[in-house]
Amino acid sequence: MLGLCMTGVFAQGQEAAIRKNIAERIPQLPKIEEVSRTPMNGLFELRLENNELYYTDADGSFLIQGNLIDTRTRRNLTEEREAKLGAIDFAALPLKDAITIVRGNGKRKLAIFEDPNCGFCKRFERDLSKVDNVTIYMFLYPILGANSVEKSKAVWCAKDPATTWHNVMANDFTPPAGNCNTAAIERNVEFGRKYKINGTPTLIAQDGARVPGAINTTQIEKLLADASK
Questions:
Q1: What are the residues whose beta carbons fall under 8 Å from the beta carbon of 173, sequence distance 6 or more?
Q2: I need a labelling partner for 67 at 20 to 30 A (CA). Which of 104, 155, 159, 225 fits?
Q3: What is the average pLDDT value for the chain, to the nearest integer?
């Protein structure tokens, strides 16, 4: 028992030393939210308030930025950790503020945050159109300027938002200005800021996995398959 107590105190002292030294030596670094051990002896993970990851030694004398890779399993431990930190509970999504698109039996579910002026989103939509048996919750997320906001409002207020969205993304259609309550779009932007959705497209699978950026049809299918396991 004495050995366990001493180990706990030592670990606590290590964390305090790391926090103190790094805060004093690199004051411009965002606040450290969490200090934890890594599988590598003597290496500690620092999770900052913006969820950025760094690594350091036992007393904060050195700071490392990069990927920690397990050479035995060839796993990128940093990427895995970032994916876990970036996960969003699907149940927390305000689905009423999304355009719902059902294909086939709609059994699988996928949420997407997109900007109507995003070129990568348009490329992604071409690949997404090949995916069947899925319910898509498309959140209008205009972050690329005032024109994106106006287009998003026009899509939301259209008689058939899903078809209008498809025409905007596939055919460069400019929808007529809408006249309806567009508070949902503002809520989408607030939600995205809260969960640090910084780019479009951003995908959220049913298991909470977040994928930033355009992925192809095969990768979309894998994301959906993994989420249903």
A1: 164, 167
A2: 225
A3: 91
Q: Are 203 and 215 in contact (CB under 8 A)?
A: yes
Measured distance CA(137)–CA(131) in Å, rounded? 14
Region 30-57: what's the mean pLDDT?
93
Rounded to two decimals, what is the model's pTM? 0.75
Question: What residue has token string 């095969």?
Answer: 218
Give the strand order in the sheet containing 44-48: 32-37, 44-48, 53-56, 63-64
Q: Reduce the secondary structure of the chain to three states and give it as a string.
A: CHHHHHHHHHHHHHHHHHHHHHHHHCCCCCCEEEEEECCCCCCEEEEECCCCEEEECCCCCCEECCCCEECCCCEEHHHHHHHHHHCCCHHHCCHHHCEEEEECCCCEEEEEEECCCCHHHHHHHHHHCCCCCEEEEEEECCCCCHHHHHHHHHHHHCCCHHHHHHHHHHHCCCCCCCCCCCHHHHHHHHHHHHCCCCCCCEEEECCCCEEECCCCHHHHHHHHHHHCC
Mean pLDDT of all residues in 193-208? 92
Q: What is the CATH number of domain 2-83?
A: 3.10.450.70
Domain ranges of the chain: 2-83, 90-227
Tens digits of residue pLDDT in 146-196: 999 999 999 999 999 999 999 999 999 999 998 999 999 999 999 999 888
Architecture, CATH, for domain 90-227: 3-Layer(aba) Sandwich (3.40)
